[in-house]
Amino acid sequence: MQCVFVQFRCVPGKTYQVAADIYDREVVSELYSTSGEYDLIAKIYIPEDQDVGHYLTERLFDVPNISRTLTTMTFKAF
């Protein structure tokens, strides 16, 4: 499985609703609120036979009230 981290910037006042909507989809391994430029960060495991872009687009990126995302691909875990 490929591990990626996705950060979400939410429409002001909608972070908790976005978090609930993301969590309800049962796609993320972990989901945290964060400080700084983005409001949430999720750890997601992508199945080996799936394209990362398609997987995220089809399962997460249509959640209402997300204004921006930043996906970070990972390589080796230490």
Instruction: State the end-to-end CA separation.
Output: 16 Å
Helical stretch tally: 2
Helical content band: 10-25%
Strand arrangement within the widest β-sheet reads 2-3-1-4
Rg, alpha carbons: 12 Å
Gross geometry:
globular
Helix/strand-derived category reads alpha+beta
Which residue ranges are poorly predicted, with pLDDT under 50 across at least 5 consecutive positions? none
Taking all residues together, what is the mean pLDDT? 97
Instruction: Count the E strands.
Output: 4
Task: Specify the biggest β-sheet.
Answer: 4 strands, antiparallel
Strand content: 35-45%
Order of helices and strands: EHEEHE
Name the features.
single chain, 78 residues, alpha+beta, 4-stranded antiparallel β-sheet, 2 helices, 4 strands, 23% helix, 36% strand, globular
3D architecture notes:
The protein has two helices and four strands, in the order βαββαβ. It is of the alpha+beta class and 78 residues long. A hairpin with a 6-residue loop joins strand 2 (30-33) and strand 3.
Summarize the structure.
The protein is an alpha+beta fold and 78 residues long. It is 23% helix and 36% strand. It has a 4-stranded antiparallel β-sheet with strand order 2-3-1-4, covered by helices on one side.
How do the strands and helices of this protein lay out in sequence?
Elements lengths: L1 E9 L4 H10 L5 E4 L6 E7 L5 H8 L6 E8 L5
Antiparallel strand pairs: 1-3, 1-4, 2-3
